[in-house]
Design goal:
This protein has 383 residues and is of the alpha+beta class. It is built from 15 helices and 10 strands. It is globular and about 85 Å long. The two termini are 32 Å apart.
Length: 383
């Protein structure tokens, strides 16, 4: 089963790490956009040099030498800008090759590169050791999808957080976001993939509320293939690790509950039935249910919709079966929480059920590739 995108390998392979760079952050990869930027800077250099000379009354004194100097100056400025943008996609112990558009480890042998790679991996595990998912316990009910071209608002998304709501389109966000909101959108794109963000998200909301414990949330629209997302800007500065972990958790929902995993109920569901629909036989969540939740002596319906008291009782009786207390809420949250730990933490070796749940995802090669790419993206933010 293939995930929504096919990312390059990340931290575990230094050679592949050089390839897993910022093609997510920008519409074009850096090395491709550099070519267009060079052309643009050349034209701008010519235009601004002539404009400057004209304004300074030197228009008649423009010589090929002066023009070339002006063009070179603008091109150098553009080159420095591209280098700065690309370097932002590297971890603190990596270098950036602006010509190739690659982050790389500066090492003299494969052994040294592997050592540096393991260092990044260990630092990333340590950074997220105490991170927590901060999401809304209750999500808005599905609201009818708008017609193409219409813009979403709180009524058409069902959101009650009173933030700024943007409509996601193939070119980004509409209306044009502020710099702060664009940075959050780029963070989400970096973590879950620009293709997934554009294909799966209908709207992107940014709210700023330090008194709200929710860092991010997603909820399905009435179209099972499409979702809405909200992000709390307050976490961008004070609890960025919790924000990143929560975005990964929320992506776990998109990954396991979208239409290619959970379909509409047509008659009786012979497998796991959730509020989102009937899990397909080959879905991640149906396999997860068969491996772990059948043992809890719950019906498939109960597994999907536990009451608060039942969830608390389940966690109290088996605390070693869940990576967090929130994971015992229901199977969907358990999958998303275990998926988040799978991404941000080292592979566990213990025999506890919560460790087995994290190792569950290693059974899917496509998810291991996804993990590496998401960790690589997260490392560029926190390291």
């Amino acid at each position: 089963m293939q995930p929504e995108h096919d990312f390059a390998a990340g931290l575990s392979d230094p050679a592949a790490r050089a390839k897993s760079i910022n093609f997510i952050d920008y519409p074009l990869s850096i090395h491709t956009s550099s070519f267009y930027l060079l052309i643009l800077m050349t034209n701008l250099g010519k235009r601004y040099t002539m404009l400057f000379m004209k304004l300074s009354g030197q228009a008649k004194k423009i010589t090929p030498k002066v023009l070339i100097i002006g063009i070179i100056t603008i091109v150098i400025i553009g080159f420095v800008f591209v280098r700065w943008q690309g370097a932002a996609s590297c971890t603190s112990i990596e270098k950036y090759d602006v010509l190739k558009g690659q982050c790389y480890f500066e090492c003299d042998s494969d052994q040294q590169c592997q050592k540096l790679s393991k260092r990044v991996d260990a630092e990333l595990n340590q950074n997220f050791a105490q991170s927590q998912t901060k999401t809304a316990p209750k999500k808005p009910a599905p609201v009818p999808t708008l017609s193409h071209g219409d813009l979403y608002n709180s009524t058409s998304t069902g959101s009650e957080t009173k933030g700024t709501i943007y409509t996601v389109n193939p070119h980004g966000l509409q209306p044009a976001p502020t710099i702060e909101h664009q940075n959050l959108w780029q963070l989400v794109n970096k973590l879950i993939g620009r293709d997934v963000a554009q294909q799966r998200l209908l709207s992107f909301e940014v709210f700023d509320d330090a008194n709200n414990d929710t860092a991010a949330a997603v909820w399905r629209s009435d179209n099972p293939a499409k979702w809405h997302m909200s992000v709390n800007q307050a976490f961008a500065s004070q609890d960025k690790k919790d924000l990143i972990r929560t975005v990964i958790h929320e992506y776990g929902h998109i990954l396991t509950l979208s239409d290619n995993q959970v379909g509409e109920v047509q008659g009786a569901c012979p497998r796991l039935q959730l509020s989102e629909g009937c899990a397909s036989g080959s879905s991640y969540i149906n396999s997860y249910y068969g491996r772990f939740w059948k043992n809890y002596d719950l019906t498939a319906g109960q597994a999907g919709e536990l009451s608060q008291s039942d969830a608390a009782s389940l966690y109290a009786n088996e605390p070693q079966a869940f990576v967090s207390e929130y994971a015992s809420t229901n199977i969907a949250e358990d999958v998303a929480e275990s998926f988040a730990d799978f991404v941000v933490k080292a592979k566990p070796t213990g025999s506890a059920i919560k460790d087995q749940k994290m190792r569950f995802f290693y059974n899917y090669p496509e998810l291991v590739v996804l993990r590496e790419r998401m960790r690589s993206a997260a490392a560029t933010v926190v390291l």
